[in-house]
Amino acid sequence: MRQVLFLCSSARPQGNARLLAERAAAGLGQDVGQDWIDLAALPLPAFHDCRPHGHPPEGALATVWQAMALSTDIVFVAPVYWYALPAPAKLLLDHWSGWLDAPGMGFADRMRGKRLWLITARADPDPTVVAPIEAMLHRAATWLNMAWGGALHGIGDAAGDVLTDADTLSRAPGFFTL
Ligand SMILES: Cc1cc2nc3c(=O)[nH]c(=O)nc-3n(C[C@H](O)[C@H](O)[C@H](O)COP(=O)(O)O)c2cc1C
Question: Domains, the chain, ranges and CATH?
Fold first, then answer.
Protein backbone atom coordinates (compact mmCIF):
# COMPACT_ATOMS: atom_id res chain seq x y z
CA MET A 1 0.00 0.00 0.00
CA ARG A 2 1.17 3.49 -0.83
CA GLN A 3 1.92 5.70 2.20
CA VAL A 4 2.80 9.35 1.67
CA LEU A 5 4.64 11.28 4.38
CA PHE A 6 4.49 15.08 4.25
CA LEU A 7 7.36 16.80 6.05
CA CYS A 8 6.37 20.45 6.50
CA SER A 9 8.97 23.04 7.44
CA SER A 10 7.43 26.51 7.26
CA ALA A 11 7.87 28.83 10.24
CA ARG A 12 4.14 29.56 10.07
CA PRO A 13 1.38 26.93 10.28
CA GLN A 14 -1.03 26.68 7.36
CA GLY A 15 1.32 28.64 5.13
CA ASN A 16 1.38 28.59 1.35
CA ALA A 17 3.54 25.49 0.95
CA ARG A 18 1.24 23.46 3.19
CA LEU A 19 -1.90 24.81 1.49
CA LEU A 20 -0.48 23.73 -1.86
CA ALA A 21 0.52 20.34 -0.47
CA GLU A 22 -3.00 19.83 0.84
CA ARG A 23 -4.37 20.50 -2.65
CA ALA A 24 -1.96 17.92 -4.06
CA ALA A 25 -2.83 15.43 -1.30
CA ALA A 26 -6.52 15.78 -2.16
CA GLY A 27 -5.70 14.12 -5.46
CA LEU A 28 -4.41 10.97 -3.78
CA GLY A 29 -6.77 8.02 -3.85
CA GLN A 30 -8.68 6.79 -0.80
CA ASP A 31 -6.42 3.74 -0.74
CA VAL A 32 -3.32 5.90 -0.19
CA GLY A 33 -2.26 6.56 3.40
CA GLN A 34 -1.15 10.05 4.46
CA ASP A 35 0.94 11.21 7.38
CA TRP A 36 1.75 14.87 8.11
CA ILE A 37 4.60 16.04 10.33
CA ASP A 38 5.43 19.69 11.05
CA LEU A 39 9.19 19.63 11.47
CA ALA A 40 9.16 23.24 12.66
CA ALA A 41 6.95 22.28 15.62
CA LEU A 42 9.26 19.49 16.80
CA PRO A 43 12.22 19.91 19.15
CA LEU A 44 14.72 18.57 16.64
CA PRO A 45 18.17 18.46 18.25
CA ALA A 46 21.27 19.94 16.68
CA PHE A 47 23.21 17.59 14.45
CA HIS A 48 26.57 16.49 15.82
CA ASP A 49 28.85 14.76 13.36
CA CYS A 50 30.00 11.61 15.16
CA ARG A 51 30.70 9.59 12.05
CA PRO A 52 31.67 6.80 11.77
CA HIS A 53 29.87 6.31 15.08
CA GLY A 54 26.31 7.17 14.16
CA HIS A 55 23.53 6.36 16.59
CA PRO A 56 19.83 5.68 16.00
CA PRO A 57 17.35 8.56 16.39
CA GLU A 58 15.71 9.29 19.73
CA GLY A 59 12.79 11.48 20.80
CA ALA A 60 11.38 13.72 18.09
CA LEU A 61 13.84 12.34 15.55
CA ALA A 62 12.65 8.81 16.27
CA THR A 63 9.08 9.95 15.60
CA VAL A 64 10.16 11.29 12.21
CA TRP A 65 12.17 8.18 11.38
CA GLN A 66 9.31 5.83 12.27
CA ALA A 67 7.03 7.72 9.88
CA MET A 68 9.73 7.72 7.21
CA ALA A 69 10.32 4.00 7.56
CA LEU A 70 6.60 3.28 7.05
CA SER A 71 6.32 5.55 4.01
CA THR A 72 6.67 4.75 0.33
CA ASP A 73 6.77 8.44 -0.59
CA ILE A 74 8.39 11.34 1.29
CA VAL A 75 7.41 14.90 0.44
CA PHE A 76 9.36 17.93 1.59
CA VAL A 77 6.82 20.74 1.93
CA ALA A 78 8.87 23.90 2.16
CA PRO A 79 8.79 27.64 1.66
CA VAL A 80 11.85 29.05 -0.07
CA TYR A 81 14.00 30.74 2.56
CA TRP A 82 17.00 32.55 1.14
CA TYR A 83 16.99 30.36 -1.98
CA ALA A 84 17.23 27.26 0.19
CA LEU A 85 15.27 24.85 2.36
CA PRO A 86 14.10 26.12 5.77
CA ALA A 87 16.36 25.17 8.66
CA PRO A 88 14.22 22.31 10.09
CA ALA A 89 14.17 20.52 6.75
CA LYS A 90 17.90 20.96 6.24
CA LEU A 91 18.55 19.84 9.80
CA LEU A 92 16.64 16.63 9.20
CA LEU A 93 18.72 15.97 6.09
CA ASP A 94 21.89 16.43 8.12
CA HIS A 95 20.64 13.87 10.63
CA TRP A 96 20.15 11.44 7.75
CA SER A 97 23.93 11.54 7.30
CA GLY A 98 24.39 10.40 10.89
CA TRP A 99 21.75 7.69 10.51
CA LEU A 100 23.69 6.21 7.60
CA ASP A 101 26.30 5.05 10.14
CA ALA A 102 23.90 4.02 12.92
CA PRO A 103 24.45 0.32 13.64
CA GLY A 104 21.44 -1.91 13.11
CA MET A 105 19.30 0.83 11.60
CA GLY A 106 19.62 -0.17 7.96
CA PHE A 107 18.97 3.42 6.92
CA ALA A 108 20.36 3.16 3.40
CA ASP A 109 18.50 -0.10 2.74
CA ARG A 110 15.24 1.28 4.12
CA MET A 111 15.48 4.45 2.03
CA ARG A 112 16.34 2.68 -1.22
CA GLY A 113 13.38 2.67 -3.57
CA LYS A 114 11.26 5.18 -1.66
CA ARG A 115 10.14 8.14 -3.77
CA LEU A 116 11.14 11.70 -2.88
CA TRP A 117 9.02 14.75 -3.79
CA LEU A 118 9.21 18.52 -3.26
CA ILE A 119 6.45 21.11 -2.86
CA THR A 120 7.51 24.73 -2.41
CA ALA A 121 6.11 28.22 -2.07
CA ARG A 122 8.01 31.41 -2.74
CA ALA A 123 7.42 35.12 -3.24
CA ASP A 124 9.64 35.72 -6.27
CA PRO A 125 7.95 34.54 -9.50
CA ASP A 126 11.32 34.04 -11.20
CA PRO A 127 11.29 30.28 -11.92
CA THR A 128 15.06 29.97 -11.46
CA VAL A 129 14.67 30.76 -7.73
CA VAL A 130 13.68 27.16 -6.97
CA ALA A 131 16.42 25.53 -9.05
CA PRO A 132 18.93 25.13 -6.18
CA ILE A 133 16.43 23.48 -3.81
CA GLU A 134 15.09 21.18 -6.48
CA ALA A 135 18.58 20.20 -7.65
CA MET A 136 19.74 19.56 -4.09
CA LEU A 137 16.86 17.26 -3.22
CA HIS A 138 16.94 15.51 -6.58
CA ARG A 139 20.65 14.78 -6.17
CA ALA A 140 20.10 13.63 -2.59
CA ALA A 141 17.45 11.20 -3.80
CA THR A 142 19.76 9.84 -6.47
CA TRP A 143 22.62 9.47 -3.98
CA LEU A 144 20.33 7.53 -1.61
CA ASN A 145 19.05 5.32 -4.44
CA MET A 146 15.61 6.82 -4.03
CA ALA A 147 13.32 7.62 -6.94
CA TRP A 148 12.72 11.28 -7.73
CA GLY A 149 8.98 11.98 -7.90
CA GLY A 150 9.13 15.61 -8.98
CA ALA A 151 8.50 19.13 -7.75
CA LEU A 152 5.52 21.46 -7.56
CA HIS A 153 6.31 25.13 -7.02
CA GLY A 154 3.69 27.65 -5.94
CA ILE A 155 3.96 31.42 -5.90
CA GLY A 156 2.75 33.61 -3.05
CA ASP A 157 4.06 35.74 -0.23
CA ALA A 158 1.39 36.44 2.39
CA ALA A 159 -0.22 33.33 3.87
CA GLY A 160 -2.93 32.14 1.51
CA ASP A 161 -1.54 33.92 -1.56
CA VAL A 162 -0.78 30.59 -3.23
CA LEU A 163 -4.52 30.02 -3.60
CA THR A 164 -4.42 32.68 -6.33
CA ASP A 165 -1.70 30.82 -8.26
CA ALA A 166 -4.22 29.24 -10.59
CA ASP A 167 -1.72 27.54 -12.88
CA THR A 168 0.02 25.66 -10.06
CA LEU A 169 -3.26 24.86 -8.29
CA SER A 170 -4.59 23.29 -11.47
CA ARG A 171 -1.63 20.89 -11.52
CA ALA A 172 -1.79 20.03 -7.82
CA PRO A 173 -4.46 17.28 -7.86
CA GLY A 174 -2.54 15.23 -10.43
CA PHE A 175 0.91 15.90 -8.99
CA PHE A 176 1.32 12.55 -7.23
CA THR A 177 0.08 10.48 -10.14
CA LEU A 178 2.61 7.76 -10.93
C1 LIG B 1 13.18 33.88 6.20
C2 LIG B 1 12.52 34.07 4.86
C3 LIG B 1 13.28 34.00 3.71
C4 LIG B 1 12.68 34.11 2.47
N5 LIG B 1 13.46 33.98 1.34
C6 LIG B 1 12.85 34.00 0.13
C7 LIG B 1 13.62 33.80 -1.07
O8 LIG B 1 14.84 33.61 -1.04
N9 LIG B 1 12.97 33.82 -2.26
C10 LIG B 1 11.61 34.03 -2.35
O11 LIG B 1 11.08 34.03 -3.45
N12 LIG B 1 10.84 34.19 -1.23
C13 LIG B 1 11.44 34.18 0.00
N14 LIG B 1 10.69 34.33 1.13
C15 LIG B 1 9.22 34.46 1.01
C16 LIG B 1 8.52 33.11 1.26
O17 LIG B 1 9.10 32.08 0.49
C18 LIG B 1 7.04 33.23 0.92
O19 LIG B 1 6.44 34.17 1.79
C20 LIG B 1 6.32 31.91 1.00
O21 LIG B 1 5.01 32.06 0.54
C22 LIG B 1 6.28 31.37 2.43
O23 LIG B 1 5.69 30.09 2.40
P24 LIG B 1 4.84 29.57 3.68
O25 LIG B 1 3.58 30.40 3.73
O26 LIG B 1 4.56 28.12 3.37
O27 LIG B 1 5.69 29.75 4.86
C28 LIG B 1 11.28 34.29 2.39
C29 LIG B 1 10.52 34.38 3.56
C30 LIG B 1 11.12 34.29 4.78
C31 LIG B 1 10.28 34.41 6.04
Answer: 3-171 (3.40.50.360)
